[in-house]
Amino acid sequence: MHSFLFSNGEHGLHREERSSASSQELARLFDKAKVCRNCSLAASRLNVVFGEGDPLAEIAVIGEAPGAEEDASGRPFTGRSGQLLDKILEAAGFSRQEVYICNILKCRPPGNRNPLKDEIRSCMPLLLEQLQIVRPKVILILGKVAANTIFENSLSLGAIRGKMKAWRGFDCCCTFHPAAVLRNPRLKKEWMEDMQLMTDHCETLGRKKNARENEN
Ligand code: SF4
């Protein structure tokens, strides 16, 4: 675990209480998502893939939409992509359990096609509510489609990655989707660079926070 995590002096009971409250809020939102029919993907889904992880995670990981394995299991980032994501998170010092993982869309687009504009418009409120509950310090955005959707542009991933970007009050780091790295292992070097960028940023945030606390 990285030292910036839980560096705000909030240990023990107080964190447990906040974690329990956040879990309950997420469970309430999940119940709402399970019966959501706000777009046509409700008709073809097997499961709503809501998200999972630490309800007070300091890092949220966001992909574009569930694939076939996620649709079948109801869990985000399973299968080979998920295993690779777990490995890169571990290499950067984070376990899957201490981040919060979800997608922009909660239901699988048929044939894994890209999300459509009306699907994104329909599903974005769920993502925003999840983020308001978890309140991560940093968001790791996986893949060009997710990055283009969040930043509402059509830039290449090469033009977006390599720097922190602000979105709705969150600090975001964009990198390759694990499926892209599985297809092209040469992307691993840049992937590691992006993870380092995110880790360095987290540590800077932790240092600033500690300095503020020491002043008070
Ligand atoms: S993708 Fe989102 S908006 Fe569409 S049905 Fe599923 S939960 Fe509802």
Folded structure, characterized:
- With 216 residues, the chain is an alpha/beta fold.
- The protein has eight helices and six strands; from the N terminus they run αββααβαβααββαα.
- 36% of the residues are buried.
Secondary structure blueprint with pairings:
Blueprint: H1 12-34, E1 52-53, E2 59-63, H2 68-73, H3 79-91, E3 100-103, H4 117-134, E4 138-142, H5 144-151, H6 157-160, E5 164-167, E6 170-175, H7 178-183, H8 188-215
Parallel strand pairs: 2-3, 2-4, 4-6
Antiparallel strand pairs: 1-3, 5-6
This protein binds iron/sulfur cluster (SF4).
Iron/sulfur cluster (SF4) binds at residues 33, 36-39, 41-42, 48, 105-107, 119, 122-123.
The multimeric state of the shown protein is single chain
Order of strands, main sheet, comes to 1-3-2-4-6-5
Query: Could you estimate the helical fraction of the residues in percent?
Result: 40-55%
Strand content: 5-15%
Give me a quick take on this structure.
This protein has 216 residues and is α/β, with parallel strands linked by helices. 49% of the residues lie in helices and 12% in strands.
